[in-house]
Write a structure and sequence with these properties.
mainly alpha
């Protein structure tokens, strides 16, 4: 059975890599140009005149479908997990490198948040 073969260490590494890749795609500024074609910008003005810009998924077609996917952290996480698990199962050496880099970056980002909260910044 596949679940017996994987082990907790690999599961943890894949989980961290999926977490980091999902955040990279859904939230990080560096991937904003990739997300832009799938969203419309909607501006709202509050009572004090401050303008807030919201990204709303396109309404139709493939761009709308991808926009909905990118707007949902949970949905994107499932697909990124599937992608990374496939990469792991392929036994491609560069795939292991990518997975490990993402997992290390996830640990670093989690530690950064914890340290920032601990120091009160």
């Amino acid at each position: 059975m596949l679940l017996h073969d994987i082990g907790i260490t690999v599961l943890l590494i894949l989980g961290l890599a999926a977490f980091r890749l999902t955040r990279l795609i859904v939230f990080d500024k560096i991937t904003e140009p990739m997300r832009r074609p799938f969203f419309n910008e909607v501006e709202e003005k509050d009572e004090e005149g401050n303008v807030t810009v919201y990204l709303v998924p396109k309404e139709r077609g493939i761009r709308g479908w991808i926009g909905e996917l990118l707007a949902c952290y949970w949905c994107t996480g499932v697909w990124m997990s599937l992608l990374l698990f496939g990469l792991y199962m392929s036994k491609w050496p560069a795939g292991e490198f990518i997975i490990l880099i993402l997992a290390i970056a996830a640990i670093a980002s989690i530690l950064e948040v914890l340290v920032t909260k601990w120091l009160g910044d």
